[in-house]
Amino acid sequence: MKSIVLSVIGLTVSGVLLGVMPAFAQSEMMTDQHIARIKTNCEVARATLGQIHANDAPAYINRNQTYFSVSDKLMARLNSRLAFSRYNTTDLVKTASDYSDTLAKFRTAYKSYDDLMSDAVHTDCIREPVGFYDKVASVRDARQNVHDLAVQLTNLISQYHDQVQAFESKNFSSTGGKS
Amino acid sequence: MNESEPVVEPIAPKPWYRKELVLFIATSLVIALALVLVSMALYASSGAAQLDLSRPGYKSVQSELDQSDNFEGFPATGAVNKDTLDKFQQLYDKQTKLVTDTDVFSPSVLDDSALGLDDVTASNQ
Fold it and tell me: CB distance B100–A60 less than 8 Å?
């Protein structure tokens, strides 16, 4: 019983230290001039973040809608039609599946980014300049993740396009295929 | 009869429903509050909040929303031939043209220097 209690305390302390250490390390590295600069400029930075946050929302909604329509109204329907005509659609199905998975990750990543951004925008940067700076760094990482997933989706869109072209040239190059 | 004795008024019995009514209203309020909390939690956790531009602060960007979702898509049934696939490619290119720019959600807009949060003394050294 005693060892279990000690283990729990040990785990809790190490967890707290692991959570605190990176922020502590970062704040320790910051000079007084840097902190003063953050305090001076942070209200403008917060306003800029708020504007970026507001502009991101319609961009995300429009993209999410288009991404979904590509998956639901184009890829899935062509795959279904080709499979019904007994063509081999393994590559196309694989790409469509990867696309759906990446779209789900994109939505999750954007939600995480949106939450972090809201938190940063509502931080009192005059009282907590270092905390605000760390939050902006987290938002930047989250936005990078969203950006990377958007690029992955673009690559999968191109990949599917190329696969359809290859399928067409393989099956309908000069003579008509089965219908 | 002594006039200085206090007159004891008979206590009127409370209506039988008073206790039940209070309990009923209190329970209703608790249930309503619980349902509101559950729905707010679902609203926040499901990602619906990110699609809601009626939130405060988003009124100015509501006009940027593409309201015309009249894209019919590609028919899921029918013959498969070269014409069909050409038509698919046309539809596909038209629809994907809207989302193939790769500079979307670029993290560079959040750079320290862009926000004025960079360490000027460190960069000057």
Answer: no
